[in-house]
Amino acid sequence: MNAAGREILAGNTRAAARLMRDLDDEIPAAIRTLKQLYRHTGRAYILGVTGAPGAGKSTLVNRITTRLRKRGKSVGIVAIDPTSPYSGGAILGDRIRMQEHALDEGVFIKSLATRGHLGGLSRSTIDIVNVMDAMGKEIILIETVGVGQDEVEIVKVAHTNLVLVVPGLGDDIQAIKAGILEIADIFVINKADRDGADKAMREIETMVSMSSFKEGEWKPPVLSAVAATDKGTVELLEAVDRHQEYIYREGNLSRYRREKARVELVEILKTRLIEKAVADLDAHGLLDPLLADMANKRKDPYSISEKVVNHSFAFHFLNGGRKKSIKGKGSPR
Amino acid sequence: MNAAGREILAGNTRAAARLMRDLDDEIPAAIRTLKQLYRHTGRAYILGVTGAPGAGKSTLVNRITTRLRKRGKSVGIVAIDPTSPYSGGAILGDRIRMQEHALDEGVFIKSLATRGHLGGLSRSTIDIVNVMDAMGKEIILIETVGVGQDEVEIVKVAHTNLVLVVPGLGDDIQAIKAGILEIADIFVINKADRDGADKAMREIETMVSMSSFKEGEWKPPVLSAVAATDKGTVELLEAVDRHQEYIYREGNLSRYRREKARVELVEILKTRLIEKAVADLDAHGLLDPLLADMANKRKDPYSISEKVVNHSFAFHFLNGGRKKSIKGKGSPR
Questions:
Q1: How far, in Å, CA of B315 to CA of A280, rounded?
Q2: Whole-number Å distance between alpha carbons of A238 and A244
Q3: CA-CA distance, B176 to B52, in Å (whole number)?
Q4: Cβ neighbours of A257 in B, within 8 Å
Q5: B112 to chain A: which residues are within 8 Å by CB?
Q6: Extended strands (E) in chain B
Q7: Most CB contacts within 10 A, which of A109, B209, B291, B308?
C-alpha cells in the first residue's frame, strides 16, 4: 500500500479528496491506489436515494444525514447530478448542497457533475463510493435522479434503495419507472402533506401487492414523509434498519455482494473497453477513415462493430495461462 | 437487399414496426437488414427535443408534428422514455402519447421504454432513427429528458437540437445542464405565460452572450412558447429552418455527418463490446469465479478490466489485411 492509500485508510479527508480529483483526471498512480484500496472496501452500508427532479432528494438526504450523525455514524454522500450550473455563475438559481453538514468532519460530500463522453459517470460513482468505503465512512448515500440508464444501474451497488415519489406532479414525472420498480426496497411518498398523498400511497401499495413475493422475501414497505419538516425520517430509518437485517442474512448478503461485483465489473469494463477501442482505432489511423466511410454510407456502424468485436477477446490469460482463446468468427458479410 | 429491407425502403409501416421489434429481440436477420438499410439513411432531417420531465416536450412535439404535417412532411417520432408505466396498469396516471396523430399514416411513433442492462437505450434509439430514415420519413423528432449520460450523447445525432426550459420550477429541475448547453441550437422558454418567464429568458440570453462565437458561427436564439396553446410554434419552426440553412452549408454539413457517425459508432460498439466481453467471460467459465473473487476482495475490478482491455484489440483486419496488431501490454501489477 502506497502513502496515499495509507492516508485514505486512516480516514484522511484531504487525501481522499485528492485521490478523487486524480481519478477524475485519470492519473495512473491514482488508479493503482484504487486497486489497492479495493480489498479494504465492503465495510460501508450503501443507501441509494432515487427520485425525479423536485422529489426532495437533497432535503431527505440532509435529514437522514442529521439522524445518522446523531447515532454517531460517519457519512459519505455522492450526489449524481448532471444538472451542473453554468461555470461559476448562478443560472436560474445556484444551489449550495447540504450547507448544514458542510463543516462537519464526519460527513464527506462529493457532487458528480462532469460527464465524460464515453460513459464516465457510472464508473466515477463506483470509484468514489469505493474511496469513501475504504476511508471508513460507515454509511454512504448515493443521491440520483434515476432517469438515465446508467443512473438506474448504478444504484444496484446499494444495500438498500429508497425510491421517492411525490403526489400531484404531472404524470410525466410521476409514472413509476420500470427500472426503478425492480430496485426499490422502500418507497417513500415525500411531500405527503400535499393533496393526492393518500391516493399515491394506495396506488403504490396496490402495485407492490400485485407483485409476487416468495416466502421470506423482502416486500417493499410504502412510507410517507415530509422531508422539509423532518416528518417521517425516524420511521424511514427504522425501515432501513429492518432491510439491513434482511440483507445481512447469509444468502442475501452473498447475493448482494455478487450483484455489486457484477455492476462494478460491467461499468468499469464497459468504459475501459470503448475508450481503448476508440484510442486504438485512432492510433492505427483507422478512426477518421471509418467515420468518413460511414458519413458517405460506404460502411455501416453495425458491420464495423461486429468486426471489431469478433476479433477482440481472448481470455486465456485470466484462465491460469491455459490457452483457450475465442477465435474471431469472421464477418457474416 | 432482402424483402424486409425493400418493404421498408418503400415506406411500409408494418415492415418497419416488425424490424424494430426484431431488433429489440436481437434477431440476427434484423441486424443484417439494418446493415443494408444504413446506406439509404441520411436523407431525413433529425430534430432533438430535450427538456426535464414536466417541461412540456410531448405537447411541443405534438404541435410541431401538426405544423409539419400541414407542410406535407412525413414525420417519425422517437420518444426516449424510461418512465414506462407499470405493465398494463395505470400507475399514478397512464398517458397515451400523441393521440392526435396516432391514426395518421404519415406519422410513425415509437416509444422506447425498455432498457437493457448493458446500455441498450442509445443503441436502440440509433437503430430506430435509421429505420425511420430509411423508410423515408422526412423529419424525425427525438424526444428525450436529457438527464442521463446516454440521453445527452444520443441527441448529437440530431441536425438541430431544441432545449426546453420552464420558468419557475425548482432549481433542482432548472439548473441548466452542462452537457445540454453544448448541444443546444435553439432554446425554448416553454410555458412562457408563467411568472418568471422574462427572468428565465434574460438569464439564458446572458448565458449565451457569455459564450464566444466565431465569425459566422451559429448563436442559439432564445424563443418563448406556450405549447399548450400553440403559441410560438410557428416562430420556433422558422428558427429551425434558419438552423437547417446553417447546417446545410458545406463545412457544417460534413462536420455534422462526421459527428453523427462518431456517436453511432461509439454507441453501437460500446454496447457490442461489453455484451461480447461478458458473454465470452461467461462462456469460458470465468465470470462467476471473477465475481466471487471480487466479492471476497481477492481481486479488484480495475485490474481485471485492465487485463481484459490490454489483451483485447487487434485491428489489422480493418487495415487492408496488413498485420499491425496492438500487443497486450501485460498488467502493471
A1: 8
A2: 10
A3: 10
A4: 295
A5: none
A6: 45-50, 75-80, 107-112, 139-144, 160-165, 186-189, 222-224
A7: B308
